[in-house]
Amino acid sequence: MFDSLKSKLKGLGKSASKLDSEKIYEETPKKKDKIIEEEPPDEEEELHADEVDVPDEDLDDDAFFEKLENDYLEERAKESGSTYTPIKTTPSNPAKSEKPQPKKEEKAKVAPKVDDSAEKKRAAAEEKERLAAKKKAEEEAAAEEKRLAKAAEKEKSSAKKKAKEDAEAEKKRLAASAEEERLAAKKKAKEDAEAAERERLAAQKRAEEEAAAEKKRVAAEMAALEAEKARPAKEKEKPAAEPKKPEAVEEKPISRKEWLKRNKQNPAETREKKVYPAGEMVGDSGKRIKDDPLDDLLDELEVILLESDVAYPVVQDIILGVRDNLINKKYGRQYTLEEVVETAVKESVRRVLKINEFDFDRWFEEQPKPVVIMFVGINGTGKTTTIAKIAKRLLDHERSVVLAACDTFRAGAIEQLSIHADRLNVKIVKHQQDADPSAVAYDAIEHAKSKRKDAVLIDTAGRMQTNNNLIDEMKKIARISKPALKVFVGDALAGNDAIEQAKVFDAAIGIDAIVLTKIDTDAKGGAALSIAHTIGKPIAFVSNGQEYKDLQVFDSNWMLERLFEE
Ligand SMILES: Nc1nc2c(ncn2[C@@H]2O[C@H](COP(=O)(O)OP(=O)(O)OP(=O)(O)O)[C@@H](O)[C@H]2O)c(=O)[nH]1
After folding, report:
1. What membrane topology does this protein have (predicted)?
2. Any ligand 1 atom below 6 A from CB of 384
3. pLDDT in tens, 491-545
4. C-beta of 92 in contact with ligand 1 (< 6 A)
C-alpha cells in the first residue's frame, strides 16, 4: 500500500520532504512555530532544495516517514545548536526489524495522514512559489542594478569622452590663436624692419649727398689752397703780414660830448638802451643828479677805461648806458655823486664780465671723449704757447692729450709744437710743411680715438682776419675736425684790434671761448672787456707769462680791480 505513495514521494523529491516536514510540524507545533519565525533559507539552500535525499526504497512507509522526520529534526537541531533526540516509533524495515508488522487497521489509520499532508503540500508549493518569486525579484533587482551600473558606466565613459573632446577642441583653439598671434607679430616685425631699412637707406642717401657736397667743397678749397701756395712768396706774405685795421676800429674816437650830441639828434639809431643800475644808492629821495656834474664824472671814467685798452665803442656803450640810468634820478645824501657814478660804471662792467665766465675744467669732464679743441687767432698772439699750457693743465688733471700740428704754413711752427710735445711727453701728429692741415687734424683725431686719448688740441696757422684764403682753410679744418670747442686766442695788447679779429673769426667758424694772452705785459686787460662785450663769448683763461703754469681761469672781479686800479 505504501509503494504508490513512496513512488509519488520519490517523484515529488523535495515536495515529499516538505510534505514530511509538514507532518512533523503538526506533531511538534513548537518546532513549527520556530521554523516559521526563522529566516527563509538562503539562495544556496533554495538552489539545492531539489537535492534532498529520498529515503531508501527498501524502508517501509512508517520507517520511511520516521527517517524523514528524524533527518529533519537532526538538521534543525544542528542549525539551532540544540540537542537532537531521534524519534523511534517503527522498525526501519520489516525484514531488518524484529518488531511485529502493524496491523491492517493501524496502517489504515495512517492513510488520512497522507490526505492532511496534501494541504501541507500545497502550502509547500506556495512557499516554493513565494521563494521562486522572491528569487525572481532578487534576480530582477540584481539585473536592474547591473543595468543601472552599466548605464552609469556608459554615462561616465561618454562624459569622459566628451571632456576629452572638449579639451582637445580647446587645445586646438588655443593653438590656432597662438599661431594667429605669432603670424601677426611676425608681420609687424617684418613691417618694422622694412620701415627701419627704408629710413636707413634714406639716411645713407642723405649722408652720401652730404659727403659728395663736402668732397666738392674740399676739392674747391684744395684748388684755392694750391693757388695760394703757387703765388710768389713775397706776394703771399705781404697781405698776411700787414694787419689791416678793421673799419669799426678805424672809427676815430670821439669825445663824450660829441657822442651825446649825436645821440640827442638820433637816439634810437645810435645806441641800444641798456640799464646800468647804481644799486641802493639811487632812489626816489635825496639829491637830484644833474647833467653837468654827471658828465664830468663820466668823462673821467671814460678816460680810465680807454687807458685800460677797452675798445672805444665799448666804452661809449657803457658810459652812455650809465648816464641814461642816472640822469635826473635822486641819490642818498650819505653818498657823494662821485661814489654813485663810479659804482654804477663798475656795476655795468662787472655785469659784462660776469656773464662771460667759463668753467673749462667742468665743461671738459662733461664732454664725450676725445674732446677736440681748435685754437685760432692772428700771428704771434700765443696760440702755440697756450696749447702747451692747456695740455699741461689736462695732464695735471690726469687726462691724456694728442697735439695736432696743423700750422703747416709757417716754417718752424711744427718744430715749435714738437718741442712742447717732447717737454710734456705727449703724442704729436704732424705732416710735412705745406701739407693739408685738415688731413693732419683728421689723423690726430683718428689716433686719439684708436688710442682712447681724452683730448686733441689743434694748433692752426696764425692769420690775419683779412686773409680770406687762410680764413677759408680754417673753416675747412673746423668742418673736418668738428671741434667741441673753438678757442679764439687774443692778445691783450691788441686793444681795439682784438674786437675786430674776434668778430671775423666768430663769423667764420663760430667762436666758443676766448683766451686772452700777455696779460702780464703792461696791458690792463681792457681787451677782455671789449671782446666779451662785443661777441658775448666767455673768457676761459688769461695767460700771464711764458711758463706752462702761467695760465689762469678768468675771474671777473680780478679783472675789474685791474681795470680800475690806480
Ligand atoms: N709775456 C708773454 N708772452 C707770451 C704769452 N703767451 C705767448 N707769449 C709769447 O708770444 C710769442 C708768440 O707765441 P706763440 O705761441 O708762438 O704764438 P702763435 O700764436 O703760436 O704764433 P704763430 O705761430 O705765429 O701763429 C712767444 O714768444 C711766446 O713766448 C704770455 O702770456 N705772456
Report:
1. Peripheral membrane protein
2. yes
3. 888 777 778 888 889 999 999 999 999 988 866 778 878 887 888 888 899 999 9
4. no
Q: Which three cell numbers stand for residue 261?
A: 650830441
Topology of the domain covering 247-354:
Four Helix Bundle (Hemerythrin (Met), subunit A) (1.20.120)
Query: Pick from 345, 324, 339: which is nearest to 287 by CA?
Result: 339
The mean pLDDT value of the chain amounts to: 76
Is ligand 1 within 6 A of the CB of residue 546?
Answer: yes
* Separation CA 443–CA 111 (nearest Å): 151
Distance between CA 497 and CA 250 in Å, rounded? 9
Residues in Cβ contact with 473 at an 8 Å cutoff, skipping those fewer than 6 apart = 221, 225, 437, 438, 461
Give the helix, strand, coil percentages of the chain, each rounded to 5: 65, 10, 25
Report whether residue 490 contacts ligand 1, using a CB cutoff of 6 Å.
no
For residue 404, how far is its CA from the centre of ligand 1 (angstroms)? 17
Reported as a single tens digit per residue, the pLDDT across 419-462 is 999 999 999 999 988 899 999 999 999 999 999 999 999 999 88
Per-domain residue ranges for the chain?
2-132, 247-354, 360-564
* C-alpha cell recorded at residue 19: 510534505
d(C-alpha 99, C-alpha 104), whole Å: 15
Indicate if ligand 1 lies below 6 Å from the C-beta of 382: yes
Task: Enumerate helices (H) and strands (E) in the chain, giving the number of each.
Answer: 21, 11
CATH number for the segment(s) 360-564: 3.40.50.300
Ligand 1 atom nearest to CA at 550: 31
pLDDT, tens digit (0-9, with 9 covering 90-100), for 461-491: 887 766 778 888 999 999 999 999 999 999 8
Residue 383 CB less than 6 A away from ligand 1: yes
Probe ligand 1: pick from 237, 376, 385, 465, max atoms within 8 Å of CB? 385
Contacts of 288 (CB under 8 A, 6+ apart): 328, 329, 330
Quote the ipTM score: 0.97
319 CB neighbour count, 10 Å cutoff: 24
Annotated binding site for GTP: 377-384, 459-463, 517-520
32 lines ligand 1 (CB under 6 A): no
For residue 370, is pLDDT > 50? yes
282: which strand partners? 331
C-alpha 518 to ligand 1 mean position (Å): 8
Report yes or no: 512 and 332 within 8 Å, Cβ to Cβ. Answer: no
